[in-house]
Structure formats: C-alpha cells, structure tokens
Amino acid sequence: MEAWIFFKRTVNMVFFGTRAYYLWCAFLLTIIGVGVTFYLKQLEGGLIITNMRDQVSWGLYIGNFTYLVGVAAAAVLLVIPSYIYHFNPIKEIVVLGELLAASAIIMALMFVLADLGRPDRFWHIIPFIGILSFPNSLLAWDVVVLNGYLILNTIVPIYILVKTYFGKEPNKKFVIPLVLLSIPWAVGIHTVTAFLYNGLAARPFWNASILAPRFLASAFCSGPAMAMIIFQILRKTAGMKIKNQALFKIAELMAYAMFINLFLLGAEIFKEYYSGTVHLAPMEYLIQGLHGHHTLVPWIWSAFFLNITAFVIFLVPKTRENLVTLNIGSLFIIVGVWIEKGLGLIVPGFIPDPLGEIYDYLPNIAEISISLGIWAFGLLIFTLFMRIAVPIQRGDFSHSKFHKDAVQPQYDRIKP
Amino acid sequence: MMSVGALAGLSLGSISCSQVEVEDFLQKHFREMSAEEKKQVIKRLEAKYLKKYGKKFNISTQEPEAGILWGYGLDIARCIGCRKCVYGCVNENNQSRKNPQLQWIRVVRQKKGSMINLENAEHYYNPETVPEPGYQYTPVQCQHCENPPCVRVCPVKATWKEPDGIVVVDYNWCIGCRYCIAACPYKGRVFNWAEPNIPVAELNTEVHYLGNRPRMKNVVEKCTFCIQRVRQGRYPACVEACPTGTRKFGNLLDPTSEIRYLIENKRTLRLKEDLNTESKFYYFFSA
C-alpha cells in the first residue's frame, strides 16, 4: 500500500513542473518523434536507408554506442574522487552519477538495437531463451556486462531514494558493497567494449593493445565533462548543493585524464607513422586523407583542436577556476571526444576495407535523426529521474510530509 | 492472463500475426531442430517461396559426408579477370541483383609485382578486353577458414563451420549485427541491406537451406562453396563458369584428389596466412 502510494505520487510528480520543465520535455518528445518516424522507415525498408554499406558496415550508431559506454563508465567513476576529496553532498553525487550512468547505458543499448538488422529476432540473444555465444563472442560479453551494469546502477539509486523518501538512512552494509562493485564494473564495461574492436585481427586500426587504455582515458574526460554541466544545471534549476571547489577539482582530474588520452593517441600515431607499414593506411585516411579521400580529415582535426584546447583550459588554474571557460572546456571535451571515439574510431577501422577498397562514409539524415531521437530519449529519462531524485534528496518529497502536501508537490522551489 | 496476452501482442509488434508469421518468429536454430522439425520448416518455407515467387522450390538439407573436407585451388597465373565466376555465382546462388547488388566473389586487379598489399587493388576496373598488359587479377571470396574469425565473433552462433569445412549461415537465426563482417579479413561476407531484388525468371529453385535459398532483408550471407551442388557431387558454379581452368576444387582428405596434387606439386599461398585463419583456399602458380 505504501509502495503503491509512493508509486502514484512519483507518477504525479513527473507530470508537474515549471514552464521550463514542460518546454524541455516537449522539445525532447518532438525530437524523439522525428527519430521514431525514421526508425519506422528503417524497419520497413531495411538498413539500406542508412549510408552504411558492406565496406563500412558500422557507422554513427555504433560510434554513439561506444561513446555512451564511456560516459556510463565515467559517471560512476566520479564516486572515487568524491570520496577521496570529500565532495559534499556525497550521497547526491552517487545517486546522480549512477542515474546518469543508467541513462547512458539505456541509450547505448538503444543504439545497438537501432543498428541491429533484425530487432524482431532480439530474443535470440537472450541467455537461456535464445543462444548467447558466451564466452566466445565479445558482443555476448558486452550484452552481459552492460545489462548487469544497468541493473546495478538502477538498484542503488532507487534504494537510496526510496529509503530517503521514507525518512530512513540507507543501510550502508547494502549500499557500499554495491557502489564499490560498480567501480570495477565500470572499468569492465568499457574494457569489454574496447575488446570488441580490439580483438579483430582483420582490422589493424583497432588491433592495437593501446585501444582499451585509450578508451578509458577518453571516457574519464567525456563522462565528467557531462556531469560537470549537469551539476551546474541542477544547481541552478533544482537547488542541488554542489560547491565550486568540487567542480574545479573534477576539472583538474580531467586535465590529467586528457593528458593521458592525448599521450596514448600520440603513441599510437608515432608507431603507425614511423614504422610506416601498410597498416598505416587507416590512420592516414583519418588524419591526412588517402588516395584523394578526405572525408574524415576536417572532423579529426576539429577533435584534436577541441581536445587540446580543453586540456590547456583545464590545466591552467586561472581558466579552470572560471565557470565560463570551464564550461567551454567541458563542451569542447564532450564534442571532441565524441568525434574521436565515434566517427574517428569506428569508421577508419573499415577504411580501407580488407581488400583495399575505400568507401567514404558519413551518416545521412536518417541515421542522424534516429541518433538524435535516442539522445533525446536518454535525456528525457534522465530528466524524469532528476525530477524525482532531486526533490527527494532535498527533503521536499517525502513520506512524512505526505499528509501535508499531498495535493501539490513543491515542484517550483527553485532557489539554491 | 490478460497481461500475458498483451505482452505477447507487444513483443510480436503491431503486424497482424498469421500462424506462419508466429511460426517464423519462434523458429529454432537450425542445429537445434529435430529431423521432424526440419521437415516442417522446409515445408513452410517452400510454401512461402511458392506464394512469394510463384515457383516451386526444392529445398535440400543434405548433410555432409564423412571423410570430406573441401578445399579450393585458384591458379593466379591463369586468371584473366573476366569476372565470369562472379556472375556464374550470382545466378547460381540467388544474390540480390541491385539495391543492394551483392556478390560473393570479388576480383581485384593489381599491378604486376604486387600481391599481398591489397591497398592499391582496383575493384572496379572495366576495360574493353581482359587481360590487360601489366596487370594481374586475384579473385577473392570466402576462404572457408579452419579457424574462422567470423564464427568466433557471432553473438548468437548463427554461423558455424560444417563437418566438411564449409562455413554456413542460418539466415533465420542471424540478428543482423554485422560483427562477422567486421571480423572477416577477406571481405567474405555481404549484407542484405534491403529485401533482395531478384528477377523471378532468374531464380534458381534448386537450393540448400544453408546455401542459396532466397534470403530476407537485413541478414548476412556468403559463399558456401555451392553447398547445394558440392554435396551432390557437382563442382561449385564458379569452377564451372571459369573459361580458363583457373579454378580447382576437391576433397583435401583424399590423397588422390586434384586439390591434393596441386598442394603437393605446385607453389601455393594462402591470403593473409599471418592471421592464422588456416584458410582452405589455396592460390597457386601453374607457370
């Protein structure tokens, strides 16, 4: 009964909000609508409506998938510095980080589903019902670890939130082991995703052992960058109490992560160019263009520019501790890493193809619309999560107050 | 009970569900079917093809024979790059003719003096006559590896190596993730990006379940050494289509076979041998 009332109030809560909240949700729903329209077309006509072909058989969808796995991993890893440096409010950061991770994983899984030619046969991949080729296929590993991670990252925040709602302290013996478990698991999901590409001898561009460390380093940049922006938005709109000092500390850690990321990338570039074997071709295609094909060159150079600029911004204390430059740096990293890890990592793996053919791939309007639709869906989920989580944590939405303010939740308290 | 019904309705989508569609949806993995279930599936499939193409198909599920491991030989010195094998294959194996145009054999043209580095290979050469002076041609198709990377990566075991060494796909089990395409070092696999387009008059109705039966959209397909022919003692279509005798085929386990003779008496090489795929496709030089 109590649970039912909680559930009902939660649903009520989601449908109440400020004007900005309604507009934001309507905006996301519109984008989702466009995405769904294109997805229905893709279901009907087949993947031929995308720009992917036999030569480049994965594209924007799988690029986004890879990127979002990184975001999901890093969102949870924020918990470590929070503990070490005593960022307050720590419980809020854990809940927020895990809900961000859950939303990112949902998006990542949706991108895989969008890329799947036969979603109607999805049940073939479900363990025990279908046939999951575990442990041979790295994709099977990914299915297992990603879903496990999703469950882990929904159980913990929901448990903390429900406890808080009923005015009780979460049981630390239950929460802390799970939070601790989610940290190596976060490293695990990203490593498995890197191994997915890494293990393919047919694709020399991916078949470099530096790939998994590079994945982690870039995730440590893009995930916190996203969290940084979200923290500030929640501080402004929902009164989340996070101090500037915590943001600056995260930015400093991001500078280190970006340094490692750039260093590993540099090591890779050196090895390919100096040895100059036939396996240089994909790298050459990406950075310089190959046999007159330059499609990705402007993209990767923009990514280099964005990432290096952000690195400098986060390295210099003066720009790091200024919210304007800090946010510019975060945006640069979000976009820069997205290019580097999305199109910049997936597409050159296929170019030139195993028989030397070059097919210039850039996503078309259908792929872009479907991808934006998935992003909007993820943001909507995250918004709804926050709509519930923030008032609970602020103490505005709780069981003890139930009798007093049942009719109208205090959704419009905005002041920090 | 109602929620179960609703759930079933949801999972099957908004399409109206005829009995055949439900059976299609629930169809098991080919290797998990009993003989009786295979018969049922073949019956259903033949009825489906009859309805779709107006033609009576004969779908075989012929099993491999013991003591056979198929191997292929290709004489680089003889190939003139005419692509007769490509079209012989397309006609035999019911590949989509356009949108998408799928071919299981790809002939690449290289300048003489180069063979292993395929980066400068020309795929779309189109001269008046072949061969052209200064060039050599290398046809490439599925190499039927003993250690196939494509099979290892498939997340649902929709592709596997048969006991006679042929790597096959269960088109009804493939989920269309294309991981195998990424894993293949030979471009041995192509994808049905849309519903295949084959003129009804050109359909080959003598088919094998794991081979040349018409495919559906969004599944992967590949060379099967013409499983429908070789298991009946015939040569693959590409061997027959070749006008220069470039292509050889036989049982690697039979010491008296032509393929064994070639391996023992000619200089052979296998593409990308360094990847340890143990391919069963031997290129050789007759002169």
Please explain how this structure is put together.
Helices cover 69% and strands 0% of the residues of chain A. Chain A is mainly alpha-helical and 416 residues long. With 287 residues, chain B is of the alpha+beta class. Chain B folds into two domains: 2-60, no CATH class; 63-287, Alpha-Beta Plaits. The radius of gyration of chain B is 20 Å and the shape is globular. Chain B starts with a helix and ends with a strand. Mean pLDDT of chain B is 93; it is low at 1-10.
Secondary-structure blueprint:
The complex is a heterodimer of chains A (416) and B (287).
Chain A: H1 2-14, H2 19-45, H3 60-77, H4 79-84, H5 90-115, H6 138-165, H7 172-198, H8 211-238, H9 244-275, H10 281-287, H11 297-315, H12 317-320, H13 323-341, H14 343-346, H15 365-394
Helix pairs in contact in A: 2-15, 3-5, 3-7, 3-8, 5-6, 5-15, 6-7, 7-8, 8-9, 8-13, 9-11, 11-13
Chain B: H1 2-11, H2 19-26, H3 35-53, E1 58-60, E2 70-75, H4 84-93, E3 106-111, E4 135-140, H5 149-153, E5 159-161, E6 167-169, H6 179-183, E7 189-191, E8 206-208, E9 220-222, H7 227-230, H8 237-241, E10 247-251, H9 258-265, E11 267-269, E12 281-285
Parallel strand pairs in B: 1-8, 2-12
Antiparallel strand pairs in B: 2-10, 3-4, 5-6, 7-9, 11-12
